[in-house]
Automatic annotation (TrEMBL):
<protein>
    <submittedName>
        <fullName>ABC transporter permease</fullName>
    </submittedName>
</protein>
<keyword id="KW-0812">Transmembrane</keyword>
<feature type="transmembrane region" description="Helical">
    <location>
        <begin position="267"/>
        <end position="287"/>
    </location>
</feature>
<feature type="transmembrane region" description="Helical">
    <location>
        <begin position="349"/>
        <end position="371"/>
    </location>
</feature>
<feature type="transmembrane region" description="Helical">
    <location>
        <begin position="193"/>
        <end position="217"/>
    </location>
</feature>
<dbReference type="InterPro" id="IPR013525">
    <property type="entry name" value="ABC2_TM"/>
</dbReference>
<feature type="domain" description="ABC-2 type transporter transmembrane">
    <location>
        <begin position="16"/>
        <end position="366"/>
    </location>
</feature>
<feature type="transmembrane region" description="Helical">
    <location>
        <begin position="12"/>
        <end position="34"/>
    </location>
</feature>
<keyword id="KW-0472">Membrane</keyword>
<feature type="transmembrane region" description="Helical">
    <location>
        <begin position="294"/>
        <end position="312"/>
    </location>
</feature>
<feature type="transmembrane region" description="Helical">
    <location>
        <begin position="229"/>
        <end position="255"/>
    </location>
</feature>
<dbReference type="Pfam" id="PF12698">
    <property type="entry name" value="ABC2_membrane_3"/>
</dbReference>
<dbReference type="InterPro" id="IPR051328">
    <property type="entry name" value="T7SS_ABC-Transporter"/>
</dbReference>
<keyword id="KW-1133">Transmembrane helix</keyword>
Length: 394
């Protein structure tokens, strides 16, 4: 057999096509998606809360709003409300200028500060970017309150030059940029990536499981009704979901050591994401057979960007942002972030995840009922079941 003949075999042709296809799919999805960092950093919403009635606060608030690279800047908001929105990751940064800031600065009080609050329990790029932004803000404010500027201000109040110099130095060192991090994630990349890794472990397992169980479903047709086989398929998937969830949770506790009170929550969450992912990936398998797996893998690539672990919805390009609303990974990752590290309830994300899974199951029921037509032997099995149920009822 010649090499050219080997290249013409079905396996060789399929391998060549798949190699080229997945290279194009992965790079074509990942590279454009990640150009949003840092290009779309200006789309992140922040809040500047100025409670200071003095000149300094107003000047700083105006300059920050003008110079910071953010298009969505909320100013008509209370600090309390802004912090609540930050907890939900509806804001990326809250800058709070306290009521006594101008008075403290003029009096050289060492307690005067501006609070910069960041939520660590969110997309990793957001937290790191905000810390860089805050560092730059503090550098600019340090220049603004330089010794020369402070001395000039004091001279306008007829303070002697020598005394003005001493007071200016005191004012210069009085400014403090107070960086506050809420919902701090424990050190270690394994903690940052835990929500995404837990989600992907279930998703990939469910995707492979859907291919195998749908194949078993089709092989068993004629031996029972489609309804019974579909129930068997779902029950088997649920059994796998529980077993794999216990295994995943066990490894998580060995490595990451989360709070013991979260054990059942993680097991339940893993079971839910498995079932949602199973039904979501089964749609293409029911429709296209094994070829459906070819399209399921690019869907993983899309969700890797669209799950919100690295970049938030505000930064995503439209296709990824749209995908985050209808695919399982986003809701699972955000639910885990809230449950493991956040201060808000994970329930809204889990209900959305359940809705995606239920919607996918309904689509699969429709496909099984309409696309996959019954075989004669299957119709006979279904008729027998109906007759048996009728006898029992009568």
């Amino acid at each position: 057999m010649k090499f050219t003949q080997f290249l013409k075999t079905r396996g060789s042709i399929a391998a060549i096509i798949m190699g080229v296809f997945y290279a194009i799919a992965m790079l074509g999805i990942f590279l454009p998606g990640y150009t949003a960092i840092p290009r779309n950093i200006d789309k992140l919403p922040i809040a500047i809360v100025n409670d200071d009635a003095g000149e300094y606060g107003a000047t700083i608030a105006e300059q920050l709003q003008k110079n910071l690279p953010f298009k969505k800047v909320e100013t008509d908001i209370t600090n309390k409300k802004a912090l609540k929105e930050l907890e939900k990751n509806d804001l990326a940064l809250v800058v709070h200028i306290p009521e006594s800031f101008s008075a403290d600065m003029q009096n050289g009080e060492t307690s005067s500060s501006i609070d910069f609050t960041i939520n660590d329990a969110g997309a990793t790029v957001i937290s790191s970017s905000m810390k860089s932004v805050v560092a730059e803000i503090n550098n600019q404010l340090s220049q603004q309150f330089s010794q020369q500027t402070a001395q000039s201000v004091l001279m306008n109040f007829n303070v002697p030059e020598k005394q003005a110099s001493e007071l200016a130095e005191k004012i210069e060192t009085a400014y403090v940029g107070n960086v506050v991090t809420i919902n701090k994630i424990p050190d270690g990349m394994h903690n940052n990536m835990l929500p995404m890794f837990l989600t992907m472990a279930s998703y990939i397992g469910a995707m492979i499981g859907s291919m195998q169980l749908v194949d078993a479903f089709k092989e068993s047709r004629g031996k029972a009704s489609k309804t019974r086989l579909f129930i068997y398929l779902q029950l088997t998937a649920l059994l796998i979901a529980v077993l794999s969830s216990l295994a995943a949770t066990g490894i998580t506790y060995l490595v990451n050591e989360p709070s013991g009170s979260l054990f059942m929550s993680i097991v339940g969450h893993q079971t839910l994401i498995y079932m949602a992912s199973f039904n979501f990936t089964a749609i293409l398998i029911f429709l296209l057979g094994p070829a459906g797996m070819i399209l399921n893998i690019p869907l993983i690539f899309v969700q890797t960007l669209a799950n919100g672990a690295v970049i938030s919805r505000d930064m995503m390009y439209a296709p990824y942002e749209w995908a985050s609303h209808i695919t399982p990974m986003y809701y699972s990752v955000q639910g885990y972030v809230a449950d493991l590290y956040g201060s808000i309830s994970a329930s809204p994300f889990l209900w959305s995840l359940a809705a995606v899974g239920l919607g996918a199951m309904i689509i699969n029921i429709i496909i099984v009922a309409t696309v996959n037509k019954s075989k004669p032997s299957e119709k006979s099995a279904a008729r027998t079941e109906i007759e048996e149920i009728t006898k029992v009822l009568s």
